[in-house]
Amino acid sequence: xxxxxxxxxxxxxxxxxxxxxxxxxxxxxxxxxxxxxxxxxxxxxxxxxxxxxxxxxxxxxxxxxxxxxxxxxxxxxxxxxxxxxxxxxxxxxxxxxxxxxxxxxxxxxxxxxxxxxxxxxxxxxxxxxxxxxx
Length: 134
Known about the structure:
Layout (H helix, E strand, L loop, with lengths): L2 E6 L6 H14 L3 E4 L6 H4 L4 E6 L2 E13 L5 E5 L4 E7 L6 E5 L19 H9 L4
Parallel strand pairs: 1-3
Antiparallel strand pairs: 1-7, 2-5, 3-4, 4-5, 4-6
C-alpha cells in the first residue's frame, strides 16, 4: 500500500489557481517542493504515493510524487507531477509542512462525469463530509 503526504496549498485561492501555478512552474522546469528533511518513510511514498493538497480545509486534489532529490542549501526536493487529479473532497485541518496520509484514509479520485465540488461551497462540502453524506 502506498503512503501519501498532505500539504496546504499556501496562497492558492482555489483549485483553478493551484492548477495554474503548477502548470506555470512546469513550463520553467521540473515541479518540486522543498523541505528540510527527507521523510523517514520516503521509500513507501516515491513513485507510488501522492501529495494531497489542502485548500480551504478540504483535501481536494492530488499530485503524484515522482521521486525525492536534492535541493539548494542541503534541503530535499519532492518532485511532483504538475497535473492535478481531482479527489472527492474530505475535511482536513490546515497544518504546517507536510503530514503522512495512509492509503486507506486517502480520498478517492473523481472519475469522468463526477462533479468536482466547485459547484458546492467548500464549507458546505466539509459539513456534509463530516456527517458522512458525501
